[in-house]
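quick one, 487 residues, struct below
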Amino acid sequence: MGAACCKPEAIDFEGDVNLFHFYLLRSVGKGAFGKVRVVQHKHTKTLYALKYINKAKCVKMKAVANIVQERRLLEEIDHPFVVNMRYAFQDDENCFFVLDLMLGGDLRFHLDRAGAMSEEVVRFYVAELVMAVDYLHSKRIVHRDLKPDNVLLDERGHAHITDFNIAVHFSDRRLLTGVAGSMAYMAPEVLTKRGYSAPVDFWSLGILAYELLFAKRPFRGRTNTALTNAILHEPLTWPEEAPGKCSTEGMHAIRTFLERDPNKRLGYRPGGGGFEDIKSHPWFRGIDWNALHNKEVLPPFEPDSKRANFDATHELEELLLEENPLKARKRKEGQDPDSMSPETRMMEEHFKLFDYTKATRRSYYHSASVSGQTTSGATSTTAASLDKKPPRTVPKNATQYSPSRPATPSDRTGVISKTGLDVEAQILDGGGMANLGGRGGWRSSELDIPLDSLDRRTSPLRQSTPLRVSTAPPEEHPDQEMLGAAI
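---
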């Protein structure tokens, strides 16, 4: 009789998803106010990454708009080379993202462990990332923070873009002006604040490719002023060993990704077709883009499955130092939204439940210009207009395939109406959270100190992570804090 009263309550897997649906496994990551751990769905036995964000810390760090925006963007996205969201839910303490699990580690981790990579490996990663970037641009989404830290490998070695915390929709009618992203990877037009759009992601991709090849970035400076000057004015130079490490075609591709004029940048073409320019570039010649999209191409590097491809200290910290360890808790009933702070109510109402097995992916973007067209090369600082591409000729009996816009559940996107609180407007110029590459927090008045002193994760094998900054009009975000990069 006594044992019967303590029997665990049955889990309703047909009901709304919640933390009771998952086994909590090892911790694998930690940020300013969020953590990541491996979880397993109790019914399907599928492994995922659980990213959970403490609501109180989120409010304190003025990051509510960014978290809601990331949640909305991830609902819209579904692509082979993106870390896709599968579930989203919340309890009284945390907001939860359940994401594709990537066991291969991030590219920063592998740079630290093994150093510079071969041209074959780098070309493979760039080709996969180009497909993901083109897909995002077709959704009118610009990532704004492409760097090795935000590229995760799966267990086979395929590359995936993650961290959409400062990603935003862009529009031809209004260019972005906020200084958002990681400074060393920012395009010149971001730093000049004269307006920018989708082409900034291709600049960041060029910086990323250079860094993977040579284990250092092409533009460097010990202060933010020096780094800005290097990005805006210094010529692109190559290490002495470059001719032996990279082909002429590879260096040309990187050079054209790093074209300061976005209208001439590889990946952009006025009127559309930028992705076709990438596919026809000599460096990418010979790639079977259809097979690449389907992950049928064997990656040239496979992560070591016998070693942890992440910092193992996260799990130790969770065991020894966490005062309030994560566990499934039922929500309190009868909570009055009117008694909540505006920020808490915003999370409660706009961090909506999502279950990919039940929901159709949709967009929260409200522009009439959404057309589903690829915009790699459709927008720039000149806000070039979109032109439709001529129809593609497909051989008889052939399977029609478009690498730049793979068919996914996102193709059933439906634009929905505003719900009273325009979250996207709050982060359009950088958002409710300004980010740095380090884990700690600094105010904007401290940004003139040397970049190297800001990185709290330095190691003998690692270059200091550059400033990750974001600005917003003072009247919207007074005394905005500069925060550490969030998981």
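The CA atoms of residues 136 and 142 lie 7 Å apart.
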